[in-house]
């Protein structure tokens, strides 16, 4: 393209920096904004995408990342979210391998560094979008808008709406997509040079980088100004979302859907303009539906379209070619990356998601920088005022990023920060309650769970968790009511069926409990914990064979199910089947060689079989693992007592009573041993 000066660039209130220094400045600003999230925890969606994702582990075949979705579920599964991002998962796996496990600091640091690199590269991208392709005598691309591109890149580096993508590890998908998007664009530009020759090689590289962007996140293909075919990308079809995920998609008529979708667009625009009210989740009542054209909120979507139409008319009709190019490409960069999230081509699973604005915000930052340059040209006498405003805005951005990224460091601060932004969001109250329950504050957790159910009366997960807490507090009647309501609302909710069975078992409603357990297993075929609890029910009813079969099923489904193994050994021991108990115990220890509870149970069996030496070995091994077990010391003392090693028996009785003075039977056994020792002492010559 021809060399042309960008006439407003010299009016931008920034120094003109050398290219390398400009990139370093932008990268440092990006680091400054988000560096305090480097030592954060795994929060919110990180649990499913990283902590519980088997595709990260070295034991999982690497090929799995190409057939599973972002969350580790097979793409063909009905429960899959159909988000196909294998390259992003691959970087998670590399983080896991380099750190030797789930160490969040490495995950966070890579996110921060990626954002800094992307922000620095934005200078080159903005320079081409504003000034076009121009070359010097050495055939290198010249930046014809160094100040405008620097200002836009600074806005991008420090924009607070990026916090979710940078401080939340699952935002890696947005970062990698943006990086490959940029590289694809920049390499495509290299296909042209001053001699008007066209390089096929660089076009091929650009297409490969575009494919890489799409394999990091689906919207990466928008670098070609196209929309991904959802059926091709999403396996067997698009994911099934519910009304709480995206209520506008379930509005009663097409008019209300369109109105609400456009209102969502205006909310996204507001987050770009004023990124102060940020929230980790905008679903479940956070944004009430517009149900009539008279709703005052329709004014916002009208304002949005007035602004967009005004900018578009300027982009198309302006006599200034530089203005036309900048506005056109700025609008394209703002709108096109957002298209996959706009509900036009397929339903998305959210109302508003700050992470989807990561690329679109680049278009906004470009338009903002252009607007400031235009203002400086038109009102030159207020240039100092504009300079102060720019510095103030950047300072506010940096401060807001620092505060918001600090909130993303822990789930407690992240969830509680949302209470003031979305007080009507049931999921916010649910997550606050869950975090409190995980930290042991069940009293406060109950309050938030109840509020979540009040705000969303069909919130089955809140009912299930609340029912579990009430079960632990022995408030069984209310727990049964909540869990029964949960399974009536969602009949395939296997976890709620199992928990209902546990409560009914505690209420001695054995037939109802058995039915609940079998319902849970019907809806979740591989459910070892449910088989374990079913076995406990059968054991309470003295249905020993059924109990053993249930526990055996639990260990088949989950070979390291310690409780099921241990209960089998104990039941066989209690029913006099010592030989079978020994076999089961030895089988269990092959799979769980460091499980002290199974060692303890097997040692008891071996003691009854008079295999004292082996029994002693298992007791001592168990005590090396868990030296403060009063019952283990007590039972070892009983073994020594039977074996005739009375001094050792005395020692371990005393250790047991020291650890637990109220240990049942131990005091009586100890007193009996003392009397025997006294008799032996008196009878000694």
Describe this structure in words.
It is a single chain. 64% of the residues lie in helices and 0% in strands. Helix 1 packs across helix 14 and helix 29 runs antiparallel to helix 30. About 2% of the residues have low confidence. Its EC number is 2.4.1.109. Keywords: Endoplasmic reticulum, Membrane, Repeat, TPR repeat, Transferase, Transmembrane, Transmembrane helix. This is dolichyl-phosphate-mannose--protein mannosyltransferase. Pfam families: TMTC_DUF1736, TPR_16, TPR_17.
Structure keywords:
685 residues; mainly alpha
Quick structural overview:
It holds the Pfam family TPR_17. The chain is an all-alpha fold and 685 residues long. The protein is built from 30 helices and no strands.
SSE arrangement:
Elements: H1 19-34, H2 46-51, H3 86-99, H4 104-131, H5 146-158, H6 163-167, H7 172-189, H8 200-216, H9 230-233, H10 254-273, H11 298-317, H12 321-335, H13 357-378, H14 383-407, H15 411-417, H16 426-438, H17 442-455, H18 460-472, H19 476-489, H20 494-506, H21 510-523, H22 528-540, H23 544-557, H24 562-574, H25 578-591, H26 596-608, H27 612-625, H28 630-643, H29 646-659, H30 666-683
EC number: 2.4.1.109
Keywords: Endoplasmic reticulum, Membrane, Repeat, TPR repeat, Transferase, Transmembrane, Transmembrane helix
Domain DUF1736: 237-309
């Amino acid at each position: 393209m021809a060399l042309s000066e960008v006439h407003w660039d010299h009016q931008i209130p920034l120094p003109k920096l050398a290219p390398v220094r400009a990139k370093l400045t932008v990268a440092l600003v990006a680091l400054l904004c988000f560096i305090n999230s480097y030592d954060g925890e795994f929060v919110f969606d990180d649990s499913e995408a990283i902590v519980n994702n088997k595709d990260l582990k070295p034991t999982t075949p690497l090929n799995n990342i190409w057939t599973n979705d972002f969350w580790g579920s097979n793409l063909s599964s009905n429960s899959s979210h159909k988000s196909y991002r294998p390259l992003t998962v691959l970087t998670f796996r590399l983080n896991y391998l380099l750190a030797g496990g789930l160490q969040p600091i490495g995950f966070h640091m890579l996110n921060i560094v990626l954002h800094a690199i992307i922000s620095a590269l934005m200078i080159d991208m903005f320079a081409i979008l504003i000034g076009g392709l121009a070359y010097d005598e050495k055939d290198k691309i010249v930046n014809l808008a160094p100040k405008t591109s620097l200002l836009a890149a600074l806005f991008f580096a420090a924009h607070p709406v990026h916090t979710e993508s940078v401080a939340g590890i699952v935002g890696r998908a947005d970062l990698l997509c943006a990086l490959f998007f940029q590289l694809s664009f920049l390499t495509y530009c290299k296909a042209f040079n001053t001699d008007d020759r066209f390089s096929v090689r660089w076009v091929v590289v650009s297409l490969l980088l575009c494919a890489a962007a799409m394999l990091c996140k689906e919207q990466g293909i928008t670098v070609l100004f196209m929309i991904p075919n959802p059926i091709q990308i999403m396996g067997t079809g698009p994911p099934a979302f519910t009304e709480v995920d995206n209520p506008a998609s379930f509005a009663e008529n097409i008019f209300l859907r369109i109105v609400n979708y456009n209102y969502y667009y205006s909310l996204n625009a507001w987050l770009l303009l004023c990124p102060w009210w940020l929230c980790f989740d905008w679903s479940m009542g956070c944004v009430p539906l517009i149900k009539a054209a008279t709703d005052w909120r329709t004014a916002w979507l009208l304002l949005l379209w007035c602004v967009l139409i005004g900018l578009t008319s300027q982009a198309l009709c302006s006599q200034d070619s530089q203005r036309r190019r900048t506005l056109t490409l700025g609008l394209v960069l703002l709108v096109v990356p957002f298209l996959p999230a706009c509900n036009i081509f397929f339903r998305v699973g959210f109302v508003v998601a700050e992470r989807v604005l990561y690329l679109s915000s680049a278009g906004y930052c470009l338009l903002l920088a252009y607007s400031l340059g235009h203002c400086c040209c038109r009102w030159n006498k207020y240039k100092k005022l504009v300079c102060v405003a720019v510095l103030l805005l950047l300072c506010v951005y940096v401060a807001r990023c620092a505060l918001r990224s600090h909130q993303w460091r822990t789930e407690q601060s992240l969830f509680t920060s949302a209470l003031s932004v979305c007080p009507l969001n049931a999921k916010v109250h649910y997550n606050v309650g869950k975090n409190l329950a995980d930290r042991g504050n069940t009293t406060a957790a109950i309050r938030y769970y109840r509020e979540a159910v009040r705000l969303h009366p069909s919130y089955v997960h809140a009912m299930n968790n609340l029912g579990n807490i009430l079960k632990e507090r022995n408030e069984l009647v209310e727990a049964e009511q909540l869990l029964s309501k949960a399974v009536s609302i969602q009949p395939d909710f296997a976890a709620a069926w199992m928990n209902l069975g546990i409560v009914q078992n505690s209420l001695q409603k054995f037939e109802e409990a058995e039915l609940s357990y079998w319902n849970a297993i019907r809806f979740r075929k591989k459910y070892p914990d449910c088989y374990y609890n079913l076995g406990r029910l059968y054991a309470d009813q003295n249905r020993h064979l059924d109990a053993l079969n249930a526990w055996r099923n639990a260990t088949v489904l989950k070979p390291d199910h310690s409780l099921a193994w241990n209960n089998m050994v104990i039941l066989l021991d209690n029913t006099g089947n010592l030989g079978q108990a020994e076999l089961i115990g030895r089988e269990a220890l092959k799979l769980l060689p460091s499980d002290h509870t199974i060692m303890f149970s097997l040692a008891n069996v071996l003691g009854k079989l008079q295999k004292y030496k082996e029994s002693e070995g298992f007791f001592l091994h168990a005590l090396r693992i868990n030296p403060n077990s009063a019952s283990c010391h007590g039972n070892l003392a009983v073994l020594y007592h039977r074996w005739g090693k009375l001094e050792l028996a005395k020692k371990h009785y005393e250790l047991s009573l020291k650890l637990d003075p109220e240990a049942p039977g131990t005091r009586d056994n100890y007193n009996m041993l003392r009397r025997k020792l006294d008799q032996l002492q008196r009878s000694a010559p």
